[in-house]
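Subject: design request, 180 residues
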């Protein structure tokens, strides 16, 4: 089984946004929400307009952990939410299927995101890459593993670093010029 990876290159993040935008605002918005909140796909897909419109935080009960969690919606994302939801009613799902009134399923989200990732040359990509990308860049900017561990509800810093691929990066770098 392959492990999905975060997107470690900001140019590839932009390429992914552009690729998704070409096909659907909804798909672009799903990607942007995922990489800016760090929410699992299982917590993103059932969100409704009422959960995000005129809100500073997303307040949910996490599907996996059953823990209550409060996530800040950053200013840039709040502006996108205003635009994305302007023609929607409060009860509408943010990521509604084009065929039903229900949100798209995890498998559909995977197909959409993976196709875009393949088109822009991102390997080892899955729906969890959104959360891992959030974690990778949060750690890169703040270097605070304890904070990220808390955000992700992980039991140890090692789990968090391994999860976002930092451990492997550190190991690789340590071995790059190691020679006996």
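Subject: RE: design request

Done. Sequence follows.
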């Amino acid at each position: 089984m392959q492990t999905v990876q975060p997107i470690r290159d900001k140019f590839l993040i932009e390429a992914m946004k552009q690729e998704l935008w070409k096909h659907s605002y909804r798909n672009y918005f799903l990607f942007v929400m995922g990489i800016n909140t760090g929410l699992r796909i299982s917590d993103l897909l059932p969100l409704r307009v009422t959960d995000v419109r005129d809100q500073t935080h997303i307040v949910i009960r996490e599907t996996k952990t059953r823990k209550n969690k409060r996530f800040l919606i950053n200013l840039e994302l709040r502006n996108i939410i205003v635009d994305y939801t302007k023609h929607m009613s409060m009860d509408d799902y943010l990521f509604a299927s084009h065929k039903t009134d229900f949100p798209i399923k995890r498998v559909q989200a995977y197909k959409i995101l993976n196709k875009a990732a393949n088109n822009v040359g991102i390997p080892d990509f899955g729906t969890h890459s959104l959360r891992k990308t959030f974690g990778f860049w949060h750690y890169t900017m703040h270097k605070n593993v304890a904070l990220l561990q808390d955000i992700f509800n992980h039991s140890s810093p090692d789990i968090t670093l391994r999860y976002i691929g930092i451990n492997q990066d550190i190991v690789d770098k340590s071995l790059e010029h190691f020679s006996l």
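Residues 106-120 form the longest helix (15 residues).
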